[in-house]
Amino acid sequence: MAHRAGITYANSGVDMQKEDRAMERIIPIFEETHRYRTGVGKCVAKIGHFAGIVQLNSRQALAIKTDGVGTKIFIAELLEKYDTIGIDCVAMNVNDIICTGAEPISFEDYIAIQDPDPDIIEQIAIGLKKGAEIAKINIVGGETAVVPEMIRGMREGVGFDLAGMCVGIVDIAKIIDGSRVEEGDTLLGISSSGLHSNGYTMARRILLEKMHFDLDKYFDELGRALGEELLEPTYIYVPEILQMFKENLNIKLMAHITSRGFLNLYRVGKGYGYVIEELPEPAGIFKLIQRYGDVTDEEMCNRFNMGIGMCMVLPKEDVDSATQIIEKHGKDAFILGHARRDPERKIQIKPLGIVGICKEQVFKKYR
Predict the structure, then answer these.
(1) What does the alpha-carbon distance between residue 264 and residue 258 come to, in Å, rounded to a whole number?
(2) Mean pLDDT over all residues of the chain?
């Protein structure tokens, strides 16, 4: 991989450090509301897990997640193809819900749109339905807001934003929070389908704005046109992970690898870091972004999933069973490394010579 300084998320227009400062302000405000509920509705997980978790009764809890698709929508607008973006919306929510140990059950969508074109909205709904079919959830409602003054797309009249909220059910005793991770546990990764739904601002900046590539341009590295690759739906990991739950595999931590990449491992647990000794060969889309943007290894790992869409930590004796289930569901499993006791919670990626710093939420070179 390259090591030259080049395009970053920050100079692409996304200031993650500023976002972090905003989160530092609002989280304490929201946490003050936790005392408003006891019994039913009591918070049983701190803000920062992949989903909020509140008590339903003495045995069960409700996991709640809200997420959107982001600027991948611009690719759909440019291609005038809207029937898969709903899959991404469902995926971004259910993949986070499953990380808590909960089974996703129901979903609502929110569409803010410039012009309520029935054809576009119908195509979005088709994608949402497909995502629901894969995740085995129902869509019970939603909201469509027509806000032409607020929403502008890549072409006049087609602008929209898409988000959703998902709920899931989990036994309180089976909540996955990383508290049972032990020294030497295996870090197992599940393949991604590509960029998923993160890093598109940077990808567009490099491939469309800097290089002026057309979306219909064919790349040998991709085996298809650029637009097809960029619109590839996010994998939904619910079926294989629910099977793991059913077979009682001892999953101690899960992390949906989205924006910030492997740094998402910091969202749950404490007292442990990870040593990543092996990485899969990056898919062609990551190579194109890095090559044409002169992006450093650390910045790639700060912003992209790099071919791994979900991570889990489990004991060595469960790795073979988990791998078989993953492959049965059409995805690849990778033994990435292991957990190690570390109060600083560093994530060392040996093949690239970089290390994740928990306090700074960033990867840096160490050699």
Answers:
(1) 7
(2) 95
